[in-house]
Write a structure and sequence with these properties.
With about 70 residues, the protein is mostly helical. The protein has two helices and no strands. It is elongated. About 0% of the residues are buried.
C-alpha cells in the first residue's frame, strides 16, 4: 500500500503521524522535499518568456480566430 501526503515544514522539523496500517515494522518512508517557491518562480519566468515568443503568440492568435465564429452562436 502507498500513502501520499503533503505536509508543511515548520521551522526545521517535519513531524508525520503515520496511518495505523503503516505503523508495523517492515515499512519504508520516502521523503522528498521540493522548494515550491523556486518551482513557482521558474513557471512564472517561462510564462513571461512565452508572452514574448512569436510562435506562441501566433498560436494564440490562430486559436482566437478559430473560435471567433462560434463565439456568437
Amino acid at each position: 500500500m502507498t500513502v501520499k501526503q503533503i505536509h508543511k515544514i515548520k521551522g526545521d522539523q517535519l513531524i508525520i503521524d503515520l496511518p495505523e496500517s503503516l505503523k508495523s515494522s517492515g515499512k519504508e518512508v520516502l521523503v522528498t522535499i521540493e522548494d515550491t517557491t523556486t518551482i513557482q518562480e521558474k513557471k512564472i519566468a517561462l510564462m513571461k518568456k512565452a508572452a514574448k515568443d512569436p510562435i506562441f503568440l501566433k498560436d494564440l492568435e490562430d486559436i482566437k480566430s478559430d473560435f471567433e465564429s462560434i463565439d456568437f452562436e
